[in-house]
UniProtKB/TrEMBL annotation:
InterPro entries linked: Znf_C2H2_type (IPR013087)
Organism annotation: Geomesophilobacter sediminis
Name of the protein in its database record: C2H2-type domain-containing protein
Domain called C2H2-type: residue spans: 10-39
Superkingdom as given in the UniProt entry: Bacteria
Length: 50
């Protein structure tokens, strides 16, 4: 039986790169950001909500 580990890492729904959660701030709601900036991914605007 394969083991599925779940941790606090998620994959971008668009590019599949690892993303991390960002808590809500003054000017944005909670969202995910790429752990490493990916200029090829359409989800680069921090204002985008998931
Ligand atoms: Zn992405």
């Amino acid at each position: 039986m394969p083991k599925h580990r779940r941790d606090l890492r998620f994959e971008c729904v668009k590019c599949g790169k690892p993303v991390g959660p960002r808590a809500a701030g003054e000017r944005h709601s909670a969202h995910f950001v790429h752990l490493q900036a990916n200029p090829d991914c359409p989800i680069t605007d921090p204002r985008l909500d998931f």
